User: What shape does this take?
Amino acid sequence: MRPIPDDQDVVDGANATPGPAAAQSDATFYHHGLPARDTRLPPSSAAWVRSVVHLLEPTTSADAVTRKETTLLRTPPFMVEDVEQVKDLIQRHPLVTVVSDTANGLVASHYPVLLEPGTGDDIVLLTHFGCPDDQTHELGRHEVLVVVQGPHGYVSPGWYPPGQIVPTWNYANAHLWGQVEIMSEPDKLSMFHALVDRFERVMPCPRSLSQDEEMTRQVASEAVGVRIRVTRFEARFRLSQNKPPELRDHVIEQLDQSGPYANPGLADFMRHRPA
Assistant: This one.
C-alpha cells in the first residue's frame, strides 16, 4: 500500500508551480485537467481565474489517475503521505463511499468501515454490502475506490485582510484504491459484532449482537462481508497551510465562533494539525 507519488506540476489556485504548459503563458489555467489559454488575461487575472477554477471545480483523484500523463493536479502543501494520519481520518469518519467501475457503469454505495487491527503500515478495511449491492458492484472482479470525507467547510475572504476577495473550502479527505475479498461466514459474523461494538461501547447501556445470536445470523445472511486491502491512496488535508500562521490562526478562531459558517469540528481538526 502506497501513497500516489507527487511527480507532476502543481496548479493550486494562485499558488502554482509553473510546468511546461504554464510557461507558455501566464494566462494558462487548467479546467478539469485540460489546458485552456486566453492570452487576453493579464497575469494577475489569470491567477484569480486559477483560484476560482480550483475552488469550484476541483479535480477528483479518479480523474487525476486517468490523466496522469497529461495534467495531474496535485497540491504538495496539502498532500498527506503518513499512513497513521489516514487511518486516524478513517477512524473519526467511518462512513465511506465505495465506487466501482462496472460493466454497467459507475456505481456508488455508502457503508461504515472498520480498520483491521495489526496491519502495520498497511490499510485494510472491513465492511459489508447489503444484497444486491454486492452484485451491482461486481465485488471481487475489479478494484474499488473508497472515498473518506473528513471535516470540511467554507472559508470566507472576509476573514482575510482587506483586498482579498477569493474564498476557499478547507477539507480533509482520502481516496483509497484496493482489492475486494469476500469474507467467510465466521469472519463476517465477527465483523458484524465488532462493527456494532465499535459504536455501542460509548452508549450508557450498550447493546450487543451477542444478546441474540439467532437474529444476528439472520440479518448477516442478507449481507456480504468484505475485506478491502488498500494498494494505494491519495490523501489531501487542505487546512490553510498556504497562509501565514497568524492568518491561519484567525481562520480557526472564526470557525470556532457563531455565525453562518461556524464549524467547530473543522476548527478542532485544524488546531491539532499544525501547518
Confidence is low (pLDDT under 50) at residues 7-49, 51-72. Residues 184 and 202 are 29 Å apart (CA to CA). Residues 185-200 form the longest helix (16 residues).
